[in-house]
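thought: fold this chain, then report.
action: predict
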Amino acid sequence: MCWVHGDPHYRTFDGWTYSFQGTCSYVLVNTTGKDLDLPEVLVLGKNEQRGNFPVSFLRSITVVLLGHTIEMPSGLRGTVLVDGIKADLPVDLAGGVSITESGIRAVIKTELGIEITFDWSTVATVSLSSSYYGNVDGLCGNYNGNKEDELNTTAGTPYANVTDWAVSWSVRDGDPFCYHHCEGTCPQCSPEDQKRYAGHEFCGIAEDKKGPFASCHPSVDIKQFMYDCLHDVCVNERRQEVLCEALSSYNAECQKAGVTVSPWRELANCGSLRTTEPVRLPV
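observation:
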């Protein structure tokens, strides 16, 4: 599974983690074409800067597969664009593709062993079956079991840094103001603020050994989450929605690991989200 969350942080199929602040469109996953029997899959992530904050977030996820283009824009909860047509979820498409709403996420599933999710805000995941092992590339990595070679070019030589590698996966999207590098001074967080946001009123609620997420600690590493949460909450000046999105991303990873956490939204001052009834879109 590949994860994109926060502003934004990435974890590849092979488990390598990194952060990248570009605001353009980037290839997350693309089939290489080496195995002609595998259906082609393309997943794009478009980032954006929100407000006056010096970091970027996911603006949309676009998936191209089995003759369909499915776009999931941020903020339009419960809806997607299928081949340019707005549709309420759930949706069934030809070829065994279903798009449903599960909790706070849109979920695209196929009979090919592909699952793609997006919470219409900051968290996206891509899951592939083992048949795609070694047959993909992009910001989600090459899925070959080796997290040490993610920055390599197709020729096998490494890029100098993460930014240069990420730029190589950028695609034109008609946005003349997007950029690949953080502008001016990159975001910083003072030791005092780090200590404050690690407290129980902020990210520390997830790390608390007696808190609602404690049951998940043995299954899902809390250290990387705390690093990302502290960074996001700090550079976004303790915005409540950023904290709630960070906690939601950890909760989602716990669910994927088969762990049910205790109720946490009220403790963290995070509101509840709705679900929708199914409809079918003609194809």
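thought: worth noting. The longest strand covers residues 56-65.
final: tokens above.
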